[in-house]
Design brief:
Number of strands: 8
Length: 190
Amino acid sequence: MKRTAYLATAASVVLMFGGPVAAAAAATAETARTVPAAATARADVTAGAAMAAALEAYPGVVQSVDRDGSVWHVDVISKDGKHAELEVDAATGSVTKENQDDNDDDDGSENAAVLAAKVKAEQAVKPALAAHSGQVWSVNWDDDDDNGKTYWNVEVKTTGGKTQNVHVDPATGKVTASTTESDTDDNDNN
């Protein structure tokens, strides 16, 4: 009984201070058997951790990250312009490469803009969460054809249960717009 309590306490400390990726890496088979399911559910890999894992596996610049069930889809553009689609397991943080190409069908202008952005996708998360507390569900590079502006669109599932689409300026890192999705929009995305 004491051993289970010690292991549960140790797992809680790892989750609080080490983050979800460290917790997944540090978990042993014995710890996994003794830690209750509620504690392991908190070990979900965040958008930031998914981007970090993807960039470690495939160095470059994140173009987008999207949560789809138990998987994060991360698109990365390498410094030489190659594009890779990676999947990051939302429970373990393990990375697999799904696809890689060199964008021969693209003039490269969008990739050049993403590569040149002063504020990267992983940095756009902070101002979005400062504006709306919750969990980041996606970050996407977006160029608005109507007005010619580019921005990071950060989708935040708020603690109040709403979905906020937050536009973050890629030059300044400031929030430029924020809209709330209706419940019917959320259902269309599932």
